[in-house]
Amino acid sequence: MDTEDTAAPSLAEEIAEYYGRDKEDARLRAGAGRLEFWRTQDVLRRLLPPAAARILDVGGGSGVHAQWLAADGHDVELLDPVPLHVERAARLPGVRARQGDARALDTPDASVDVVLLLGPLYHLPERPDRVRALAEAHRVVRPGGLVVAATINRFAPLHDNLSTGLYFDAEHRPQIEAAVGDGRMRPTGGPKSLFTTAYFHDPADVPAEFADAGLTPHAQYGLEGAAWLMGGIASWLEDPRRRALVLAAMRQTESVPSLLGISGHVLTAGTRPEDGPGR
Description:
Elements: H1 13-19, H2 24-27, H3 33-47, E1 54-58, H4 64-71, E2 75-80, H5 83-90, E3 95-99, E4 112-117, H6 127-140, E5 141-152, H7 156-164, H8 173-182, E6 184-185, E7 198-199, H9 206-212, E8 216-222, H10 233-238, H11 240-253, E9 265-271
Parallel strand pairs: 1-2, 1-4, 2-3, 4-5
Antiparallel strand pairs: 5-9, 6-7, 8-9
């Protein structure tokens, strides 16, 4: 890959403002958001090489996943464009953290075993930027190394806001329907804005973005299945026995193509070809 253009693109102002509110860390550590957390952990632990793998956690936020990855014995470096996230992550045992942009990684070629992109693709509405981020992952991972990217599903805003009832609010509904139409979430500003600038994928489109970046996609995993839309999910997760049953149930359907889109999030896993040319 041509690496002459090394200037990191800037983070959009509204995205920086959104994550500067410091709510993302708590979202995955409490309530129904723990289903996404535990399912991400469950899938990754099955995909990752044995510890100590060198893992680059790109867009890793405040280190919610880096924390358990380091505790599992992996060598974890986290990059994130939000200074507050980097500051939080740097306090975690075993985690090195610094600012960085997924589209211009300041990391040597073929120097890591695994690249995780568990957030960056959400906030790159333009396909060339998403492919650029995946191509950077291809560049820095070793041949045969693993790349895993998370995407938000195209119909997640519709499903989520039907479940919460916000879809029935005439002020919210146009933003939801626009996102379902072309995958783009456009913040409206003020209290009626549901999210920040984002892109929601059709799961079937993600493997092509991997392939265009030089990666070989292997599998996709729906994280929450239909469980995230069921009443009572937060209380089920409080009970260790029920939580184990929920996680086991989600494994049964996680890679069924016709069911991928019902999840809020999908993980796509691929590898850098062993003998493929550099990009």
